[in-house]
Amino acid sequence: MNFGRIITAMVTPFNQHGQLDVPATQELVKHLIANGTDAVVVAGTTGESPTLSTEEKLLLFKTVVETANGQIPVIAGTGSNNTQASIELTKQAEEIGVDGIMLVVPYYNKPSQEGIYAHFSTIANATKLPVMLYNIPGRSAVNMNAETTLRLAQLPNVVTIKEASGDLDAIATIIEHAPEGFTVYSGDDSLALPMLAIGGAGVVSVASHIVGNEMQQMVRNYQAGQVTAAAMQHRQLLPVMKSLFMAPNPTAVKAAMEMKGIKAGPVRLPLIPLTAEQQQELQSVVQPNINFFVS
Q1: Residue 204 annotated in ligand binding
Q2: What is the DSSP string of the chain?
Q3: Per-residue pLDDT tens for 204-215?
Q4: Is the model's pTM score more than 0.70?
Q5: Which amino acids are annotated catalytic?
């Protein structure tokens, strides 16, 4: 499965009453496809998965699959810290027709490396779908080391990993020793270009909600050998990338989307809206008609 270079970790649009907004979700998928997204991850961290019920996740998967209509791959976030519950949700997502699943390192339980391997391999063996692993020690409290990742990469349907550890040495080890066809994506927008430089496949991005086409242009320049231009574009995009994490994700990106006329709605508790000061700061960086890549 080729998931492309720019995968958007999609927000979950809510209406003013905090309910899943299906029409806004449909419009968001169309917006992302038109603005440089190669694939989407649905109901991940940026999608506020901890606050979504199983019924909401299934409706979200169904809506995105039907709206995308085969134009881009849809990756369902079915991972959790409950192995059996992840298997059940994965099977339901498979019936809906998603193209792959994303499984996060179990959070809160703090499993050993052997426990992480057993968790992921048990879920992978229960589905035919391609599996994206997701290592994010800042949220899970446990880091999946390179050796465990490489061991999992031997499983036939474990095809990629979203690496948000920020450890480029470990990531380089994974890229160097992984079986042919296994890919590594940056889980951090600000490391998208450095990841490409060490052999990464691309980025699972939050900023692509706002600057997807610009990120695609940066990637194309890098692939074409225009490294200096790509580096300049990365530097120009960096303030936007950083501003979207001024508050717990996806608070700022949802606010930025609303500023640009893209319906995203509020965040759910325990997340809270940006303060007036934060709104003003974000507005100064993410302007409705901002012109990128002007030297």
Answers
A1: yes
A2: ----SEEEE----B-TTSSB-HHHHHHHHHHHHHTT-SEEEESSTTTTGGG--HHHHHHHHHHHHHHHTTSS-EEEE---S-HHHHHHHHHHHHHHT-SEEEEEPPPSS---HHHHHHHHHHHHTT--S-EEEEE-HHHHS-PPPHHHHHHHTTSTTEEEEEE-S--HHHHHHHHHHSPTT-EEEESSGGGHHHHHHTT--EEEESTHHHHHHHHHHHHHHHHTT-HHHHHHHHHHHHHHHHHTTSSSTTHHHHHHHHHTT----PPPTTS-PPPHHHHHHHHHHS-TT---S--
A3: 999 999 999 999
A4: yes
A5: 134, 162
